[in-house]
Amino acid sequence: MKRPAWNGAPPRDGEEAKARIIDAAMRCIDRHGPGKTSLSDVAAELGVIRQTVYRYFPSTEELFIAVGFAALNSFLERLVAHLAGRRDPADVVVEAMAYAIEQVPKDPYLGLFLDLGRPEAFSRGATSARAFDACRLAFARTDVDWDELGFSGDELTELLEFLLRVLLSFANDPLPGRGGADLRAFLRRWVTPAILAPTPAP
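Structure tokens predicted for TetR/AcrR family transcriptional regulator:
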């Protein structure tokens, strides 16, 4: 017997439909892995046809970007907790970068673009205004006074853009064997100077 659409509980509106599609995609990724999850799997999970999923997400890439963003806030919460108690700006920047470089590829949702060989999709999502806003809020919650260091407004946005682009270079072309203390020493040597440029606000 054929199951009713949406497993008998249709969404109230488009926003709920999108949220349920994203949740279904996450369950499919958990079950099959990111490389073997298709829109057909997601549609079957919801009890709808593929065209229904396409109505809200025109391509697989768009759906996976939405899944990545759904996971971004959770990741940033973990990052802020990891950085708690660190007050030295260089230490915060280096540890934030190292943590992201080490953890993003392991996250089944944030790393799914890389697993599927879609680094350009990951890049476009990670450098979007939405990603910048989320990262700015996360950095503002650390124990560093960025305004006092001269990182306010455009300066902080530029710093975050620089850090995200460095992160993308590692994500798209990781260096085998560089991790732990070696990774942090590398980042401290080359990334730390970026936070010394702005003049502290008067």
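The chain has two domains: 1-58, 67-196.
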